[in-house]
Amino acid sequence: MLEKSGFKAFDVRKMPYKKAEKILFLGVERVVGCLCQCAAEEMEREREKHREEEELLHIRQMKSAGLQDSTFFDYTFANCDETHPCVQYARRYVGNYAEFQKNGQGLLFWGNVGTGKTFLAGCIANALMEKNIPVLMTSFPKLLNALGGLYSGEKNEYLKSLNQYRLLIIDDLGVERDTPYVLETVYLVIDERYKSGKPFIITTNLSLEKLRNPADLEHGRIYDRIMERCVPVAFSGKNYRTDKGRKNMENAAGILKA
Q1: How far apart are CA 115 and CA 84, in angstroms?
Q2: ∠ Cα 204 112 81 (to 5°)
Q3: d(CA 21, CA 30)
Q4: Is the CB of residue 201 less than 8 Å from the CB of residue 76?
Q5: ∠ CA(94), CA(98), CA(103), 5° rounding?
Q6: What is the pTM assigned to this prediction?
Q7: How distant, in Å, are the alpha carbons of 29, 161, 189 from that of 185?
Q8: Each residue of 10-39: pLDDT tens digit?
Q9: Within the chain, which residues score under 70 in pLDDT?
C-alpha cells in the first residue's frame, strides 16, 4: 500500500537485531530476534516520517478539492499584511473555530472593492485545512454556473454535497445579476447551508445598510439568514488591489526603462 502511494515501505527484516530470545507461543517454544534500541528508534522515526508525508499529501488533496480558484492557494497568513486592521479577526476565527463550529457561526466580510476581504477569507480556509478541517472556498458565480445545467433532483444533491465541508466560504455576494432565477438559486444555496447548522463565511461589496434593509422580499430572505449566522466585519481603508497593481506597473516601467 505504501509503495502505491509513493512512500517507501520500511522492511523490518533488514533491521539489526540484538541477541535472540526464547518465547512460548501457543504452547511451542520459539526463538525470535529482538530489535536493538537504536534500530527500534530508527523504525519509529521512519514511521513518523511516513505519517507526516501522508498527512501532507492529504492536506494537498483537500486544498485541491476545496480551493476552487488557483489564486486562493497563495492566500495565507504567511503572505498577509499584518497591519491590516481585520487580520486579528481572521486569526481569532481560526484559533476559536471549534466554538464557532459548535454554534454554526460564520463571518460576513463586507466593504469596498479591493480591501482584502477575499484574501483574508482565503487565509482562514488555508489555515483550517492545515489543521485537517475540510473547507470549500468558492464564489457565487461559480456556484451559479455549476447549478445552471442541473435538473431539480441533481440540484438538490449538489446543494447537499456542499455540507460535507465543515466550513463553506462563498465569495462575491452581490456581483450576480438580479434575475428571479439567480435570486432563487442564491437563496437555495444559503438556505441549505443555514438548515445544515454548519458555519459559512460570505464576502460582499454590498453595504451593511443594504444588507440590513433589503429592497424586497426576495433579497430579504437571503440577507436575513446571512445576518443571523454571520458576524459582520467591516473592511475599509486602502484598496490593496489597486496598490498592488500600481506597484506592478512601477516595476514593469522600471524594467522597460532600464
Answers
A1: 9
A2: 95
A3: 8
A4: no
A5: 110
A6: 0.73
A7: 72, 15, 6
A8: 454 454 545 556 556 666 776 655 656 776
A9: 1-27, 30-36, 39-41, 49-56, 58, 237-258
